[in-house]
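PROTEIN DATA CARD
Card holder: DUF2752 domain-containing protein
Chain length: 134
Origin: Hymenobacter ruricola
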Amino acid sequence: MLTNSRFWPAVLLLGALGLGAVYFVLDPAQHPFPRCPFLLLTGLYCPGCGSQRALHALLHGEVGRAAGFNLLAVACAPLLAVGAADGSRAWFTGRVQRAALLYRPWPAWLVAGGTVAFGVLRNLPGPLGAWLAP
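Structure generated from the sequence above:
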């Protein structure tokens, strides 16, 4: 059972749906969700800081509020949705039909470079850093 190739995607899908339900119901700003260890250790915002609150806002359709918490998470949400839909379709149909955009080198480099740049820019003093900070 545990080695069945159809078992693990189902577990991941159910886990993602369950986690999504938790983030839909509970606001991370008001409940004891895990805090960023990078922020606790360094006092600097990592590229993921604010993404829990952004996810909660996105699940409620508040795109502007979500962008205020973490602009990078909101910008990457469509890419993650396409990847999840592509993987789910392949799992349900049994045929691998990969979205060509996701499996080229340049999107990975773009996301990696954008993540590093976002992490640096949101910690700069001044209006840009304040705008990008959660």
